[in-house]
């Protein structure tokens, strides 16, 4: 199961996920589960229904207390970022995914910090939004290779331990803006 958990908001590039689901529709081992809500949810649901994507499911946001349990259900997690937003947004969902030790499939600009982090730390793979065939192939490769999944999982957990998780990242982010707020 490929999961996308969190905000289905305006900076998240989710149309390619539906294209990938369409490409993998005849392979029953692939199910795409969106967990959460946001500005794009209804439009995504409408497109999934209109295309007859029975391998796409939508679930409500989960309470924070159940986040780790919810994230652990995915075999691989999709993290997306709309091109042009990479200088302003860093999807914090990466920290939760890393904490539960799941491979990451990043869909977004290849030259952004997030893509470099995913590939440089061996958390998973990174592709641009136009590479739907390559992304589908990456998902097949992950599904077919338990050793590779375990390697990405171990790298994710190591990254989580070293980074201190989302709370530590938020504290670092907040510290960047302390001088600005003091003005």
Number of strands: 6
| Helix share bin | 40-55%
Name the helix and strand elements from N-terminus to C-terminus, one letter apiece.
EHEHEHEHEHEHHH
Structural class by helix and strand composition? alpha/beta
User: What is the CA-based Rg, rounded?
Assistant: 16 Å
Uncertain segments are none
Please count the helical segments.
8
Strands ordered across the widest β-sheet = 3-2-1-4-5-6
Mean pLDDT comes to 91
Distance between the termini: 48 Å
The biggest sheet, with number of strands, parallel, antiparallel or mixed sense and barrel status, is: 6 strands, parallel
Approximately what portion of the residues adopt beta-strand conformation? Answer: 5-15%
Which outline best applies? globular
């Amino acid at each position: 199961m490929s999961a996308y958990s969190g905000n289905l908001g305006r900076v998240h590039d989710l149309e390619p996920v539906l294209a990938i689901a369409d490409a993998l529709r005849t392979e029953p081992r692939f199910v795409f589960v969106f967990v959460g809500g946001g500005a794009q949810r209804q439009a995504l649901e409408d497109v999934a229904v209109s295309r007859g994507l029975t391998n796409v499911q939508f679930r409500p946001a989960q309470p924070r207390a159940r986040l780790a349990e919810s994230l652990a259900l995915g075999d691989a997690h999709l993290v997306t970022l709309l091109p042009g937003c990479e200088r302003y947004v860093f999807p914090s969902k990466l920290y939760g995914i890393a904490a539960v030790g799941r491979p990451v499939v990043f869909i977004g600009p290849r030259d952004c910090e997030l893509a470099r982090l995913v590939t440089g730390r061996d958390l998973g793979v990174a592709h641009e939004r136009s590479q739907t065939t390559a992304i589908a192939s990456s998902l097949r490769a992950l599904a077919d290779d338990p050793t590779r999944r375990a390697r990405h999982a171990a790298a994710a957990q190591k990254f989580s331990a070293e980074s201190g998780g989302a709370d530590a990242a938020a504290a670092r982010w907040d510290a960047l803006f302390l001088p600005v707020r003091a003005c």
